[in-house]
Structure to design on (589 residues):
C-alpha cells in the first residue's frame, strides 16, 4: 500500500512488536517516533521524533517536514528506477548494436532489426522499408520486411511507396523525422497524409497506434524507414478488430520513440555495413571469376574445369551432411563454410598461369619439335632404304624393308599417345632405338635418340619428370598467390584447402607429402571432385574423356589403395552428386 505514494508512519510503543515489518517498509516511508521507548527501539530508522515536541503547531510542522521528506525520497526512488531502466535499455541497445554489426546477411539483418524493435516497443507488428535508389536522393521506399503477430503468412510483396506527403511513411521519409500516430483511423485534421485502409481490409486487421522512424546514416542520407504498429498491453493479444484494438492497444510514448530512434540509427549503420559487405563480396566474386577465366584462357581445352570442381565440391559437401555416415556423421557445413570451400575449389588450379604453355598444353609424350624430328627422320630412313636397295640391286626386297620401317613408325606413333593409367611401353621401342642408319654426311644416327626413347617409354600421361615437376609446381604457386590475399576470417582457409588438392591419404601426393591426419575434409572433397572431373571432362588433346562409370571405378580403385577418401567416394556415388557436373557446358558460366 506504500509502494507508489508518499507516506508518514507515526510509531508508538504498541507497534514495537512489528519492528521487522517496519524495517522492510520502502525507504520513502518516513517513520516518526511518538514516544521515548519507540525512539530508542527504532534508533536509526526514525529520522524524526515527536518526543519533547508538545506544541500542536510544532507537531504539525514536524509532520509536514516528514511528508516533504517522504515526497523527496519517493521522487529519488522513482528517478533511480528510471535511471536503472535507462541504463538497462542502454545496455540492451548496446548489445543489440553489437549483434547487428556482426550480421552480414541483409535479409537476416532486417529480420533481427524488426524483431528487436517489436520487442523493445511491445508492438504487435511492423515493417522495414528501404530507400531506393540508395544514396542521396531516394525517391521511393521498397517494402523489404514485414512481420505481425496477429497476421499469419503475410506474402512477400516488395511494393514501392513514393517519398512524399501522401502517405504516413512517405511523409516520415521526406521529413526525416519520427511520426507518432495515436489512432490511424482518426488522424489530426491538419495532417497532410491519409490512411490507406487496404492492408487492414485484406488481412482482417485493425491498425491503431503507429510509430514511424526514418533510418538515416552518418551523412544524413535516407537508408529506410522503421514502422511499428499497435503497442500492446498484452503480449499475446491479437488485434483483428476494433474491439480488440480498443482493449489492448496503447499509444506510443516518448520511451518507445527514444528506443526506436536509437534502433533506427544503429539499424541504418548496420544496413549500410551489410550493403558494403555485399558489394565487397561481389567484387571478390568478380576477382575469383577473372582468375578462373585466366586459367581457362591458358588452356581452352580445360575451360570450365574449375567451375565444375567447385560445383561438385559443394554438392558433395551437402551430400556428406545428409548421408550421416561415420566418420562424418557429425559434420555440418555452414553457408560461410560452403562458400569458403567453393572459393578454394574455384582457385585450386590458379598457379597454372605460371606454367609454360609448351608444358601445360603438351598433348603427346614427345614435345612437338621432337616429334617433327622423329617424323622427318623416318622419312629420311625411308628414302635412304630406297636409294640403297636400288643402287645395290636389291630392289626386290625393298617393299619388305619399307613395310618394316612403316611398322616401326606405327609403333613409335602409337607409343607417342598418352595413357590414362600406367601402361608398359612396347618392347619393340628399345630394339628400334638400337637401330642405326647412315646420314648423307657419312655419320651414323640411331632411329631414336635416348631423349626421344625416354619420352616414348613414359608409362602414363605426357610428361617426364622435369615437366611433371613444373606442372606440380602450380600447387605452391597457387598457395603463394592465395596466401597473399587478405581474406576475411570466414575465408581464411581458402589457400590451405586449395594447396592440398594433390595430396594423398597415404602420403604419396604432393607438394608436402601429407598423410590422412593432416588433410581436412574440405581438401579431401576437392581432391575427389578434381579427379572425377579430370577423368570425365570433354576430350583434351593429351587424353580422351572417360565415361562416368569408368571414372567411378578408377576412384574406387584409388580409394581401395588408400590414396583418396573411400567414404567420400561412396557418398558421391550413392547420392549421385557427380551428376551435377555431367551434361552441362560449363564454359558459359
Amino acid at each position: 500500500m506504500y509502494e507508489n505514494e508518499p507516506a508518514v508512519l507515526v510509531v508508538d510503543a504498541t507497534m514495537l512488536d512489528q519492528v521487522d515489518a517496519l524495517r522492510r517498509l520502502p525507504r520513502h516511508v518516513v517513520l516518526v517516533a511518538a514516544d521515548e521507548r519507540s525512539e530508542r527501539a527504532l534508533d536509526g530508522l526514525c529520522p524524526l521524533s515527536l518526543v519533547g515536541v508538545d506544541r500542536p503547531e510544532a507537531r504539525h510542522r514536524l509532520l509536514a517536514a516528514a511528508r516533504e521528506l517522504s515526497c523527496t525520497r519517493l521522487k529519488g526512488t522513482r528517478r533511480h528506477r528510471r535511471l536503472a531502466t535507462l541504463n538497462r535499455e542502454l545496455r540492451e541497445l548496446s548489445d543489440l548494436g553489437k549483434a547487428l554489426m556482426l550480421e552480414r546477411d541483409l535479409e537476416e539483418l532486417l529480420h533481427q532489426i524488426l524483431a528487436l524493435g517489436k520487442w523493445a516497443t511491445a508492438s504487435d507488428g511492423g515493417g522495414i522499408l528501404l530507400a531506393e535508389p540508395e544514396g542521396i536522393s531516394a525517391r521511393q521506399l521498397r517494402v523489404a520486411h514485414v512481420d505481425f503477430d496477429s497476421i499469419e503468412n503475410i506474402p512477400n510483396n516488395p511494393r514501392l511507396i513514393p517519398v512524399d506527403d501522401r502517405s504516413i511513411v512517405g511523409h516520415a521519409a521526406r521529413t526525416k523525422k519520427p511520426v507518432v500516430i495515436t489512432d490511424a483511423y482518426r488522424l489530426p485534421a491538419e495532417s497532410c497524409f491519409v490512411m490507406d485502409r487496404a492492408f487492414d481490409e485484406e488481412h482482417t486487421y485493425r491498425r491503431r497506434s503507429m510509430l514511424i522512424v526514418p533510418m538515416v546514416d552518418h551523412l544524413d542520407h535516407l537508408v529506410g524507414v522503421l514502422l511499428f504498429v499497435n503497442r500492446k498491453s498484452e503480449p499475446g493479444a491479437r488485434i483483428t478488430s476494433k474491439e480488440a484494438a480498443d482493449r489492448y492497444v496503447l499509444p506510443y510514448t516518448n520511451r518507445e520513440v527514444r528506443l526506436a530512434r536509437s534502433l533506427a540509427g544503429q539499424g541504418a549503420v548496420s544496413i549500410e555495413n551489410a550493403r558494403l559487405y555485399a558489394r565487397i563480396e561481389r567484387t571478390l566474386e568478380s576477382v575469383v571469376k577473372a582468375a578462373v577465366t585466366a586459367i581457362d584462357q591458358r588452356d581452352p581445352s580445360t575451360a570450365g574445369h574449375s567451375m565444375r570442381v567447385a560445383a561438385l565440391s559443394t554438392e558433395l559437401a551437402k551430400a556428406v551432411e545428409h548421408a550421416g555416415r561415420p566418420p562424418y556423421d557429425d559434420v555440418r557445413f555452414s553457408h560461410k563454410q560452403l562458400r569458403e570451400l567453393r572459393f578454394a575449389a574455384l582457385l585450386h588450379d590458379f598457379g597454372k598461369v605460371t606454367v609454360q604453355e609448351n608444358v601445360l598444353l603438351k598433348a603427346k609424350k614427345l614435345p612437338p619439335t621432337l616429334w617433327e624430328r622423329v617424323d622427318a627422320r623416318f622419312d629420311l630412313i625411308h628414302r635412304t632404304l630406297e636409294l640403297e636397295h636400288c643402287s645395290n640391286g636389291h630392289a626386290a626386297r625393298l617393299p619388305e624393308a619399307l613395310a618394316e620401317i612403316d611398322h616401326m613408325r606405327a609403333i613409335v606413333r602409337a607409343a607417342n599417345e598418352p595413357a590414362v593409367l600406367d601402361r608398359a611401353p612396347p618392347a619393340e621401342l628399345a630394339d628400334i632405338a638400337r637401330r642405326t642408319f647412315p646420314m648423307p654426311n657419312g655419320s651414323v644416327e640411331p632411329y631414336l635418340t635416348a631423349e626421344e626413347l625416354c619420352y616414348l617409354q613414359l608409362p602414363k600421361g605426357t610428361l617426364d619428370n622435369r615437366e611433371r615437376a613444373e606442372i606440380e609446381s602450380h600447387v605452391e604457386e597457387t598457395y603463394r598467390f592465395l596466401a597473399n590475399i587478405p581474406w576475411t576470417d570466414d575465408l581464411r582457409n581458402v589457400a590451405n584447402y586449395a594447396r592440398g588438392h594433390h595430396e594423398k591419404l597415404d602420403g604419396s601426393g604432393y607438394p608436402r607429402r601429407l598423410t590422412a591426419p593432416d588433410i581436412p575434409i574440405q581438401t579431401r572433397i576437392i581432391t575427389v571432385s578434381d579427379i572425377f572431373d579430370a577423368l570425365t571432362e570433354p576430350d583434351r588433346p593429351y587424353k580422351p574423356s572417360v565415361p562416368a562409370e569408368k571414372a567411378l571405378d578408377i576412384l574406387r580403385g584409388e580409394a581401395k589403395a588408400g590414396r583418396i577418401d573411400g567414404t567420400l567416394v561412396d557418398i558421391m556415388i550413392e547420392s549421385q552428386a557427380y551428376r551435377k557436373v555431367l551434361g552441362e557446358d560449363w564454359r558459359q558460366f
In short: The chain has 20 helices and twelve strands.
